[in-house]
Amino acid sequence: MIEARFGWALSGDALRVGLPASEAHAPERFEAATGRVPAVVYLWGIQAPRPGQPFGTAATEAAGRICKGKRLRVAARSAGSVVAEGKETSERQDVGRALIRRGLAWQDQRGPSSAQLRSLEQEARREEVGLWQQEAPTPPWAR
């Protein structure tokens, strides 16, 4: 796991983070002098509505709220699970799972997924939370 510093949410499933310079692909970059290099991390196994789609803004804002002020643990550099940990508490939250649970993302059907993500999505559908309040939500890969 790589510890990353949260910058902002680009969308519900993409985060701008600062990676330790030792973990970056280009440590010679100027930002390396600060010890952090900017990067984008895509949350593994989920697809969130894009800004401009219904619930796109809500997904982006929720990802930001989950991560803000927390220490992030990233399983891989470019696409992986991201766990937000409280700095002073033992609170731990997988960002992708939290978004699916809130009805703000789909489990990504275009690639490998997990039974847990599928189960969380089915639960959100049954409870009609978030995007599941719509009659026929359109996933981003269908646009």
Write the layout of secondary structure elements.
Elements: E1 2-11, E2 14-20, E3 36-43, E4 46-47, H1 56-67, E5 71-74, E6 79-80, E7 82-85, E8 92-94, H2 95-101, E9 106-107, H3 115-127
Parallel strand pairs: 3-6
Antiparallel strand pairs: 1-2, 1-5, 2-3, 4-9, 5-7, 7-8
Helix pairs in contact: 1-2
Structural key phrases:
7-stranded mixed beta sheet, 22% helix, 143 residues, two-stranded antiparallel sheet, alpha+beta
Query: How many individual helices?
Result: 3
What structural category do the secondary elements indicate? Answer: alpha+beta
Total number of strands: 9
Quote the distance from N terminus to C terminus.
33 Å
Q: What kind of assembly state do the chains in view correspond to?
A: single chain
Q: How would a crystallographer describe the biggest sheet?
A: 7 strands, mixed
Query: Strand sequence of the main sheet, in spatial order?
Result: 6-3-2-1-5-7-8
Overall spatial form: globular
Helix coverage percent: 10-25%
Compute the gyration radius: what is it?
A: 15 Å
Low-confidence stretches: none
Mean pLDDT: 85
Which sequence of SSEs, written as H and E, runs from N to C? EEEEHEEEEHEH
Please report which band the strand proportion falls in: under 5%, 5-15%, 15-25%, 25-35%, 35-45% or over 45%. 25-35%
Task: Describe what this molecule looks like in 3D.
- There is one protein chain.
- Helix content is 22%, strand content 29%.
- It is an alpha+beta fold and 143 residues long.
- The strands form 2 sheets. It has a 7-stranded mixed sheet. Strands 4-9 form a two-stranded antiparallel sheet.
- The longest helix has 13 residues.
- The protein is globular, with a radius of gyration of 15 Å.
- The chain starts with a strand and ends in a 16-residue tail after the last helix.
